[in-house]
Amino acid sequence: MKTKKKILLFHDIFLMKGGAERMNIEIAKILDADIATAYWSPDCYDAKSMGFQGKIIQVDPNFKKGGLGFLKMKWRFFHSKKTLKDYDIVFFSNEAISAIWGLSKHQKSFYYAHSISRHLFDLYDEYLAKVSKIRKIPYIILAFFLKKLYLAEIKKVDTIFVNSKANQKRVEKWLGRNDAKILYPPVDTDKFFPKKDNAIFRNIFPDFPESYFLSFSRLTFAKRVDEIIKAFKNLPSKNLVVLFGAEDSQREKFMQLAKIKPTKQKGKLLQSEKYPNIFFYSLKDNNLLVDIIQNATASIAISKNEDFGMITIESAACGTSVIAVNEGGYKETIKVGKNGLFLPENLPIQEGIEKVILETSNEEFSNIAKNCNKSIEEFSLKNFEKKLRGFIKN
To answer: Using an 8 Å Cβ cutoff, are 27 and 9 in contact?
Structure first.
């Protein structure tokens, strides 16, 4: 009888309730794997309540954000040999790939590139431009060595998975690997499904506006949530609800942009006094995310060259239309007229949002929503599980 192989999923940090974090928990459940990470924040998902039954190992439980915290985390990954030694297969994710130096020859390695380290490659100039003058030289030196290290780590991986054709092209162009396999992230259609019960929704969220557009991307400049906020400043008759997490890097700046006093408070709808059509909300219970998506007129997803974009398929699964920018992974998930609309490419982002919202009626959004759920069958959890097991087995 064959001995069951022991599998470890090693993700850098479970800091927030994001798509990569949720997907890694699903992968660990499918593979019956343990999870190793630098740190598991209380603001992230409760893996056990999601059905995860394995062991969680934190290699840097006192993790602190910032440059020094990042370097300390990478150091911990380099010295993770003891954590890895009892496993036959290790499934790396994000910055945790640095732990690959602790693998022995008999151990099999997989790497899921939710994204490449874009701050070192295609977005390097943009990140550098945001660095203060006094920190520019240290940043350039550090980025040079991190880039060399990352490329060396990528060469050591046995099998690379990517989440989209767009990301597959980046891996080939910037990392020199032309063998990356596409494994689309899944949406759990048992959890995300179309059901709009206004009475129940009103009972749970009595303060929410009757009709609203939704942004549930992380509050970062790369996600362009600031462009969404700016657009709705010019759309006083249209409501915007922005979901946020306590650890979102630009939370304070974007709240200030909307003229809302920065806070980490959960479970309270925050309304701008100057722009009363703009609201911010942080979930106490992530299971209520589905209700908020289901009852939105449309979700807005305009991240810059998004690697994949879980927002689009989660919205579609909930029967909610998506307004997206025609870039990156959105080109693979958005089917115009069937689950969403693209912004016009001849206009700046902010103007494009305003144009689509002003020129598309609620009835048109509703008609698109009727077909949304059917458009994402290839992204089902069942399909993902079948493909993942096939790759691991082979």
So the answer is: yes
